[in-house]
Structures are given as structure tokens and as C-alpha cells.
Amino acid sequence: MPFLEFIAGSVSGALGLAVGHPLDTVKVRLQAQSKYKGIFHCVAQTYSNEGIHGFFRGLAFPLLTTGLVNSVVFGCYSNALDYLTESQRQDRSQGKPASAAQVFTAGCFSGLVQVFVCAPIDLVKVRLQGQTNISRYRGPLHCVGVILKEEGPRGLFRGGLALALRDVPCYGLYFLPYEITCKALTDSGKQPGTFAILMAGGVAGVVTWAFATPMDVVKARLQMSGAGGRDYRGVLHCVTVSVREEGPRVFFKGLLLNSLRAFPVNAVTFLSYEHLMRLLCPPAR
């Protein structure tokens, strides 16, 4: 059933998000604000000024909405792969795997579709995470209201182009190493075990974020523009100014954190997704 992938994606996304949010908060602050000297300085300043709660700023909103985003990603990917391969999930798990080109194309399609859902959600998350001492926004709904009042509906899609440039190719890369690693760690004709899924999910997350981090920096800066951050006219202006003032290394701010966060988050996400799919749609005997 095509909708089962959406259900499994929704639940697995929420579980993965809960695991990685504190590191994600540190990453966003490092990327969007230049006042921190490094990871440990950011962690120390956040804890000193805001306590443990500071690491969980903006969690409630994405926790409630990430199910929707992940549902779109996994649902669109799985159904696109069904269409491209003219087969079903059970067929591919029993010795008829999709080609690398089909996996990459289906991943890119899922990335494109989720941009339209994710852009406003990610903007609100980044704005809430970027707050330090001064609380400009009282919560997710207040944040949405302020953005609509000050910037109009288009304001909710600030940084949307950078998000698309990050997510469309990177979701193609996201599923490709997962499928390859799963296949390498699984005996022919058998379903991947827990270890294979955990390793494949972790590898997929790390590989994807290695490619996604430069555009993730640009996205975060554009999203914070107009909310206490520097004003940028667009993607190219942000890239130019950032390189001129901070050098090329600026585009790798948060790479270590992204990698540290990506492995457990995506391992948990894929493991819960695969087990839910086996529960909801058991293989034919």
C-alpha cells in the first residue's frame, strides 16, 4: 500500500529528530552567528546563559512537524522507486534491486517535493534556535505571526532556494549510500539485519551532510537575515560576503557537528522506518 511508507516515515523522522536536536542547535548557532570560537565555546556559552533548556530551543515545533516532512521524503522516495523500477518493495528485497541511477533519481524527487513542505518549518526552527538571550519570538506560532506581519507570506520561504540547492541533490545521495551499504552487509536473498540497517543509515547521514554543509551554512544565514542576523540579498550575495569576510572555511562551519549528529540520527531513523515497514507490510511467505 503506497501510504504505509508515509506513516513509517512520519514516526521514524520524529524519533531521529529527538536524538539529534541538541547538536543541531549548536550547529545552527555556529553557522548563523560568528561570535562563537568553536563547538565547545558555543556549548559552554549556551549552557552558561540558558541552561540545558537552551539546547532544546525550537524542538517542539519540528517534533510536531518533522513527521510530516519525513513522511513526504520516505513516501515520495519509495513510491517514485516503485514507479521507476516498475516493481514493489517486496520484489526489490527478494533479489531485484533498483539501479544506482533509479535510487538517485527517486531521492532527488523526494528532496524536491519536501522543500515545499519543509521551507517554512525549517525557517521557524532556525529562528527559534538562533535566539540567545533576547526572546524575539515567544514560540512557533508567534514566530510565524511575526514573519507574516513583517515580511508577508513570502517571508516563510526565506532561504528556500538555498534549501532546494541543498536538498534536491543531497536526498539523491542520501538514499544511494544507504542502499549500497545495506547490500554490502546483507547476504544475497535475505533482508538486512539490525546491524546492517544501523550502519547503512549512519553512513548515509554522514555522506549526505558532508556534501550538504556548505549550502546549509548559506541557508541558515539567509533564514536568520531580518531576525537579528545580517541582511543578504540572496544566495550569491551571501556566498560572496561570507567568503570575503571569513574565507572559504566558513562553508564548513558545523561539518563536524553535522557528522557527529548525522550518524545516530539517521541510524535510528532508518532502523525505525524499516522495522515499521516490516510490521505494517510483512513480506509474503
Fill in the keyword field for this structure.
mainly alpha, 10 helices, single chain, 285 residues
Number of helices: 10
Output mean pLDDT.
85
Residues in helix, %: over 70%
Query: Could you tell me how far the N terminus lies from the C terminus, measured between alpha carbons in angstroms?
Result: 17 Å
Largest sheet: none
Strand content: under 5%
Number of strands: 0
Taking pLDDT < 50 over at least 5 consecutive residues as the criterion, the unreliable ranges are: none
Order of helices and strands: HHHHHHHHHH
Query: Which overall shape is indicated by the principal axes computed on the Cα atoms?
Result: globular
Structural class: mainly alpha
Radius of gyration: 19 Å
